[in-house]
Design a protein that fits this description.
two-stranded antiparallel sheet, zinc
Length: 63
């Protein structure tokens, strides 16, 4: 294919981060792909290690 025949197509998703966060939260709520349980004052919280590490230097170093 010659250079003149090639077309460039750019699709932008400015709100994509919201979709990702919503899906990660849905997965957490449904206990899909959670790989750690945090226990605080007897309360159990399922979570994703990758999300915790991305949001916290403490967890990044801990894992």
């Amino acid at each position: 294919v010659e250079a003149e025949e090639m077309m460039e197509y750019i699709q932008e998703f400015p709100e994509h981060y919201k979709v990702i966060l919503d899906r990660l939260n849905e997965q957490r709520e449904q206990d899909h792909f959670t790989d750690i349980t945090l226990i605080v004052d007897g309360h159990h919280f399922k979570a994703h290690k990758a999300v915790l590490a991305a949001c916290s230097q403490f967890f990044y170093k801990f894992f």
